[in-house]
Every structure is written in structure tokens, then in C-alpha cells.
């Protein structure tokens, strides 16, 4: 019996002696693989930030040493494998529902003065401003859980399809936190690095955020009033046309819908041209003569496609989020808010 126990002990000891070096060999390599300061592209980025913006390389090496690669973000950012997962009938109710409408009406009532000022200053209807905030963060209640430094480092250096874009946003984020005297690791946001009540990416924050409450600083993470002014400023800066309609429901008569949709969502044909091509729509309110539009398809697998003619203001909303689904949901939520306010 003692001999048997002794034999087992020798076997276990042998296994442990083999396993320990293996762990010692694999663990550091796994750490090194994802350690940002050890990666040439990160060191190149740091050197560039030092040369162009005066950052201390040692400081940035320390920052990237604390940044963590987030596999969940990489999973979330990738587009769906199958186009069938894109469904307007599934997407719209996420944002256009009783809860979003009721909370939006409360938000309008609470911030009526700021919304009126934004309308007057920028020409953007209050319902559109509020609808964007509602779609983005449920009126500031869901601003994101991720450390923005982690999110942007992950996407800038581990997501090749859009690495250039996210490196630009990472650059802007580091400039923003330096200017605002913030600890980069205290700023939380979306998995894509968007910040605050209106979910501005760092470049947008630095360019279009405004101090709308008069306290001397634009605080999109804590000031709904600053968020209201900043959304309106963003839309105005991207070409919002005050008093103009956004889109019209459309039906296809004898048009080549696929060809028209393929032309893109930027208005490029006159409404008269679209009507002559076989697109039927009721222009209410009536547009100016020569108004440009684009055919928008809101697809749902196994269901008829819903079509709209998007005008310039529809296109401007897509500058906030480059999705026709997004712009249509914002438009529909805004209309629902307008109707709800009218019956109060």
C-alpha cells in the first residue's frame, strides 16, 4: 500500500514539474501579446502624440499599460454575419414605444426653456433633439458602462477594419481629457467610445459640444441642457434646414427601386425626378421647388419593404449615426412626441 501511495506521489510530482514550466512559458507570452506598450503600432502612436501634441511618452506608456483589451467590444462592433438579421420591424419598436414616448414627454416638460432656446438658436425642432437623446441613452439614463480608454484602445489597435477611424477618436479623447483635466480612466461610455447624454464621439465632443447652461464648460455627461444645445449645434453644423420636412412615406409604382436605393441616402434627385421615375409619395408639408431627395428602403426579411423619400434633414440625422434605420426611428419618435404633446 505504501509503495502504491509513493508511486502516485511520484506521478503527481512529475506532472506538476511538467505543468509549471508550461504555465511559466505560456502566461507571459499571452500577457505580452495584448500588452499595448509592447506593440510597435502603439509605440508609433505614442511617438506621434508626443511629436504633434506635446504629450510625454512616459505618461502615455503608463496609460497604455493600464488600458485593457476588451474582447466583448470586438464581438459587439462586428457587423452581423447574415443580412437577414437587419429588420426594420424589429428595430423600430426598440425606440418608438410607450416608454420612450412617456419619458420623452417628461424630458420636454422638464427642459422646456432650454429646448425653446435651442430651437431659436439652431432652428432644430425640440422633438428631434429629444428623440436623438431618447434613442441614444434613454434621456441620459443609459450612458454606457465601458471605460472609454479601454474601448478606444481596443478598437484602435485590435479592430483592423476601422483602426484608422478609432485611432483618430483615441487621439481626440486624449486631447479632450487633457483639456478638461480628467483622468482618462474615469470617463465611461459606450463600447464604441461615445460619451455622455447625447453619446458624442470624442472628435464630435471637441468640435460641437457647447456650454448651453452658462456654467463655463460643456459637460455632456452631467448636463442635459448642454446636451440639448450640443445636439442642436451638431445638426445645424451638418446642414439642418430650419422649417423643412424630413422625409415622406413612399410607394413603388413602376420604378427600379433597387437602382434608386443603390444611389445612396444623400439626396441627389429632385422630387419631380423621383416621381417621374415611378416613386409615389405625398409631399406634406409641401417642399420648396427643386428639393432633392433619395429613396430609402427600410427592409424586413420576409415582409414587404417600407420605403421613404429622405430629404436633406433626413440625411443630416444620418450624420449623427450613419444608418437609415436610425434616422427613421428618430423621425418616428419625434413625430410621436409631437403628437403626445399636442394632446396634453
Specify Rg, calculated over alpha carbons: 26 Å
CATH homologous superfamily of the domain at 46-80 and 144-194, by name? Bacterial muramidase
CATH topology name of the domain at 46-80 and 144-194, in short, is: Helicase, Ruva Protein, domain 3
Beta-strand percentage? 5-15%
**Shape label:** globular
Please provide the ordered H/E string of secondary-structure elements.
HHHHHHHHEHHEHHEHEHEEEHH
Largest sheet: 5 strands, antiparallel
| Strand ordering within the main sheet | 4-6-7-3-5
Helix/strand/pairing category: alpha+beta
Proportion of residues in helical segments: 55-70%
CATH hierarchy, class of the domain at 46-80 and 144-194: Mainly Alpha
List the helices and strands and how they pair.
Layout: H1 2-34, H2 40-53, H3 57-66, H4 71-77, H5 88-95, H6 98-110, H7 112-122, H8 126-137, E1 146-147, H9 148-158, H10 163-179, E2 188-189, H11 202-208, H12 224-237, E3 247-252, H13 257-262, E4 269-270, H14 271-276, E5 279-281, E6 292-298, E7 306-310, H15 312-320, H16 324-342
Antiparallel strand pairs: 1-2, 3-5, 3-7, 4-6, 6-7
Helix pairs in contact: 2-3, 5-16, 6-8, 6-16, 7-12, 8-12, 8-16, 9-10, 10-11, 15-16
Amino acid at each position: 500500500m505504501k509503495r502504491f501511495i509513493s508511486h502516485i506521489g511520484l506521478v503527481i510530482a512529475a506532472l506538476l514539474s511538467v505543468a509549471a514550466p508550461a504555465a511559466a512559458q505560456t502566461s507571459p507570452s499571452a500577457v505580452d501579446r495584448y500588452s499595448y506598450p509592447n506593440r510597435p503600432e502603439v509605440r508609433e502612436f505614442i511617438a506621434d502624440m508626443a511629436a504633434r501634441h506635446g504629450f510625454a511618452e512616459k505618461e502615455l506608456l503608463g496609460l497604455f499599460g493600464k488600458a485593457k483589451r476588451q474582447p466583448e467590444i470586438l464581438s459587439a462592433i462586428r457587423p452581423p454575419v447574415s443580412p437577414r438579421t437587419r429588420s426594420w420591424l424589429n428595430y423600430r419598436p426598440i425606440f418608438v414605444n410607450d416608454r420612450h414616448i412617456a419619458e420623452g414627454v417628461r424630458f420636454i416638460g422638464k427642459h422646456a426653456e432650454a429646448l425653446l432656446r435651442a430651437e431659436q438658436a439652431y432652428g432644430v425642432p425640440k422633438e428631434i433633439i429629444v428623440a436623438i437623446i431618447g434613442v441614444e441613452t434613454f434621456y441620459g439614463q443609459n450612458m454606457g458602462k465601458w471605460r472609454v480608454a479601454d474601448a478606444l484602445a481596443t478598437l484602435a489597435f485590435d479592430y483592423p477594419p476601422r483602426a484608422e477611424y478609432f485611432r483618430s477618436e483615441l487621439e481626440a479623447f486624449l486631447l479632450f481629457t487633457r483639456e478638461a483635466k480628467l483622468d482618462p480612466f474615469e470617463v465611461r461610455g459606450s463600447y464604441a467610445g461615445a460619451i455622455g447624454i447625447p453619446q458624442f464621439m470624442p472628435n464630435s465632443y471637441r468640435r460641437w459640444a457647447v456650454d448651453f447652461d452658462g456654467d463655463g464648460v460643456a459637460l455632456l455627461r452631467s448636463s442635459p441642457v448642454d446636451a440639448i444645445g450640443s445636439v442642436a449645434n451638431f445638426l445645424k453644423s451638418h446642414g439642418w434646414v430650419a422649417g423643412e420636412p424630413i422625409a415622406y412615406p413612399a410607394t413603388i409604382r413602376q420604378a427600379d427601386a433597387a437602382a434608386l436605393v443603390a444611389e445612396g441616402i444623400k439626396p441627389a434627385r429632385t422630387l419631380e425626378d423621383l416621381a417621374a421615375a415611378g416613386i409615389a409619395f405625398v409631399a406634406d408639408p409641401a417642399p420648396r421647388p427643386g428639393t432633392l431627395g433619395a429613396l430609402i428602403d427600410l427592409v424586413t426579411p420576409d415582409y414587404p419593404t417600407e420605403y421613404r423619400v429622405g430629404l436633406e434633414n433626413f440625411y443630416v440625422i444620418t450624420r449623427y449615426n450613419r444608418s437609415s434605420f436610425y434616422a427613421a426611428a428618430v423621425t418616428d419618435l419625434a413625430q410621436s412626441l409631437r403628437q403626445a404633446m399636442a394632446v396634453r
